[in-house]
Design a protein that fits this description.
Cofactor: Mg(2+)
Family: Belongs to the inositol monophosphatase superfamily.
Catalytic activity: a myo-inositol phosphate + H2O = myo-inositol + phosphate
Keywords: Hydrolase, Magnesium, Metal-binding
CATH class of the largest domain: Alpha Beta
Distance between the termini: 38 Å
CATH architecture of the largest domain: 2-Layer Sandwich
Largest sheet: 7 strands, mixed
Number of helices: 7
Bound molecules: D-MYO-inositol-1-phosphate
Number of domains: 2
Order of helices and strands: HEEHEEHEEEEEEHEHEHEEH
CATH superfamily of the largest domain: Fructose-1,6-Bisphosphatase, subunit A, domain 1
Helix content: 25-40%
Binding site for Mg(2+): 69, 85, 87-88, 217
Length: 264
């Protein structure tokens, strides 16, 4: 079942990525509207990407639920719900910074995410995971198993984070970053949470922390990171909108304590 769902996610994700690449004009992309705050933007291409993904998935599986960043939630009757960000990293996309992704996850009856698929639209790099079956990156048709980064001491860690669109949360995040920066090797703000999480799964960064993520930012990349052997947690256990912390199991407790002490 999950493999069929993953095949569908990959087919649809590739088609959406191709649409976004084809429709992206040179230079900056026009913003169609702002959402929660003036910094939270959406373009007509985000909406077209979501419409395509929603239509293809529901044509193939009419009873499924669907939760996308840009549209109304569909509850569904099959027990499977899709969680989709049609362009994660919209601000990068608007400015032409080639770091934005399609993120597709599916959760089953128990609420657990069963599959995650992320494609970097600009580079075509594809990542996936199935719950209990591991995580991988595709190199052509070959699947390269992901094992996360090696353990590192905190002061040697390259850490990624991101910022909420809400002004009060941004102020708090800025204060936390000021405290964290002197303790680690450096901090990256990649600009797409799904790509932060797959970068962690692929050993390109050492740890991650962010507050304010929505389900479509977290679902696919979170499963890929977890299946690559990383520990993910939040304030009270499972990561959620309030806090996502991810790191190698050997250093997770120390890193978690540090980011909490910094004010995340
Ligand atoms: C955003 C990106 C960003 C993260 C924000 C997200 P969007 O998603 O993932 O890296 O810091 O919290 O909202 O708006 O580009 O889909």
């Amino acid at each position: 079942m999950s493999r069929d769902l993953l095949d569908l996610a990959r087919t649809v994700g590739r088609e959406a990525a191709a649409l976004v690449r084809a429709r992206r004009p040179a230079g900056r992309v026009g913003v169609a509207a702002t959402k929660s705050t003036p910094t939270d933007v959406v373009t007509a291409i985000d909406e077209a990407s979501e419409q395509l993904i929603r239509a293809r998935i529901l044509e193939a599986r009419p009873g499924d639920g669907f939760l996308g960043e840009e549209g109304e939630e569909i509850v569904g009757t099959s027990g499977v719900q899709w969680i989709v960000d049609p362009i994660d990293g919209t601000v990068n996309f608007v400015y032409g910074i080639p770091v934005y992704a399609v993120s597709i996850a599916a959760r089953t009856g128990g609420g657990e995410v069963a599959l995650g698929y992320v494609i970097n639209i600009a580079t075509g790099e594809e990542y996936a995971a199935l719950a209990g079956e591991g995580a991988w990156r595709w190199d052509g048709d070959e699947r390269i198993t992901l094992q996360g980064p090696p353990p590192a001491t905190i002061d040697q860690m390259l850490v990624a984070t991101g910022f909420s669109y809400a002004a009060d949360v941004r102020e708090q995040q800025a204060r936390a970053v000021v405290r964290l920066l002197p303790k680690v090797r450096d901090i990256r703000r990649i600009g797409a949470a799904s790509l932060d999480l797959v970068a962690l799964a692929d050993g390109r960064i050492d740890a991650y922390v962010e507050q304010g993520l929505k389900p479509w930012d977290l679902a696919a990349g979170g499963l890929i990171a977890r299946e690559a052997g990383l520990v993910l947690s939040g304030r009270d256990g499972a990561p959620d909108e309030r806090l996502v912390v991810a790191a190698h199991p050997d250093v997770f407790e120390e890193y978690f304590a540090l980011v909490r002490a910094c004010g995340f």
